[in-house]
Amino acid sequence: MHILVVNCGSSSIKYQLIDSQQELRLLHKTIEITQQSDIKAAVIQLLDECLDYNIDAIGHRVVHGGPSRHAQAIDDAVIARVHQYSHLAPLHNPHNLAGILACREALPDIPHIAVFDTAFHSGLPRRASTYAIPQALAEQHDIRRYGFHGTSHSYVAEVAADHLGQALSDLRIISLHLGNGASACAIEFGHSTETSMGMTPMEGLVMGGRSGDIDPGIIFSLMRDADMSADEVERMLNQQSGLQGLSGISYDMRILENEAANGNDKARLAINVFAHRIRKYIGAYAACMGGVDAILVTGGIGENSASTRQRILQRLEFLGVILDDDRNLDAKVTLQQDVFAIHRPHSRVKVLVIKTNEELKIARQVQTIVEQRHEVKNPNRIPIAVSARHLHLTKETFAQLFGEQRTPTHRKDLVQPGQYACEETVNLIGPKGRIQGVRLLAPLRSYNQVEISRTDEFLLGIDAPVRDSGKVQGSAPITLEGPNGTVHLEQGLICAHRHIHMHPDDAKRFSVNDGDIVEVAINGGVRDLIFGDVLIRVHPNYALEMHIDTDEANAAELSSNTDASIVYSSIKSASAHLRINKTRI
Length: 585
Prior knowledge:
Layout: E1 2-8, E2 12-19, E3 24-32, H1 39-49, E4 57-62, E5 72-73, H2 76-84, H3 93-106, E6 112-116, H4 126-129, H5 135-140, H6 150-164, E7 172-178, E8 182-188, E9 191-195, H7 216-225, H8 230-239, H9 242-247, H10 253-261, H11 265-289, E10 294-298, H12 299-304, H13 306-313, H14 325-330, E11 339-341, E12 350-354, H15 358-373, E13 382-387, E14 390-392, H16 395-402, E15 410-413, E16 420-429, E17 434-442, E18 449-451, H17 454-460, E19 466-467, E20 476-482, E21 485-496, E22 499-502, H18 504-510, E23 516-523, E24 530-538, E25 545-549, H19 550-556, E26 563-573
Parallel strand pairs: 1-4, 4-6, 7-10, 10-12, 13-25, 14-17, 18-21, 19-21, 22-24
Antiparallel strand pairs: 1-2, 2-3, 5-6, 7-8, 8-9, 11-12, 13-26, 14-18, 15-16, 16-17, 16-20, 20-21, 22-25, 23-24, 23-26
Helix pairs in contact: 1-3, 10-11, 11-13
């Protein structure tokens, strides 16, 4: 399949023609433009340059997709959405949209797919996506953290997991996309859980022309005291701030580094502020995730500036980062050799420079959408089980709570073969309150795990992370009270990631693999609802069943005859080792 990937910006159109089966770049070029009206002529030019190839589909990079959770075939509704969010990404969306319209006009009979920078961040926890303003106002005007550079962050995370030989779902990653636009992302076990850009691409790190984080009071001060209009302030923060505003010289880090070496103090200040802001985010994200396993550096500055990397990553030994200065100086990445490790062998945290390839990531998603348009949707339904709060214990913890001579007492079998609910219950004790009678599930395990809902969090006064079952490292603490005593767990309390158990035969029928992330439509509930970020878990000992918690069931107002079906268009992989044809991740 030949997929043309088009990225229309304010001053250029970048494109790549990719053979998606072999993942080969056949053509690539940047066409300079001076104004938006030139985009149509530039599209005609790039299509002329592709005449020797049959184009099967076109993937369009769209910066702001609002709450869209995945790539989508472009129709009138998608075009309206790109236009709707143009005011939040004024340097990007209008040009993205002009490119879409020009390409559709030139090639109306092939699929056109929009791939959104915001999609990777669409599942941000509410505590990360919510601004502390009146919520009625936020809901009315769609004010929330959307995040950007998602295509790049997700791509380099997958490459890193593959390089490290670990599943992405086992890693806590801080990804730094450093270029003229710059952002940081906390990727916790395969999911974006924090990111520096917000409702617009202006928030967060210092960038080429964008300010990043500032006190909102500065805006009102400038409007009052400098008599600046809202448009003038917006233009200043978007185009005249950042490295450009700090230095008064350039937004280009290469120029600033040369000027700084020649003694220019403003260039030095710009570089120091840029690095300082990034270091703050690294520390914050490590704290949010309870640690970090890898730091990834990508983007034009991240891939090419050894001195900037050194300035950012020095003195992070307290986090477990031990930089190898020689390897950092030697680091060179290309599309053929896309990873270079710059940490010392004994560094607990791995530090990788990675060549991002957003175009390849876009092509993979386009291929997935195009293939799925030709698939016959599987009519099979998936039974839903509402999983109330419960816990799994080790043999040692069970003995401490119930006595050395006790064993779990069978109450009733569960759907999953060999699993059963026990007569034994414990009380959960948190800083704020307690929950009585939480049931034990057996058989006993090699780790302690307590699964609660978001509502339970507030009853207990504990912030429990959303985790896949078994991923208890760095999770929340909890005290358990049994008839024979109490046990304080330093970790083990989670809100379980919604998931579907499948036997391999079921996985084959539904065309999914272990570790895939899908969207699931609820059938028969009082409310129509689609759950995103549902994990597929495949094992010969599993029976087909979807597990959600009580809060999620209440949101859909599930009835006793409710079941579910997979929405195929959202399939993506959560593991770096799956390499399935759908996404090649």
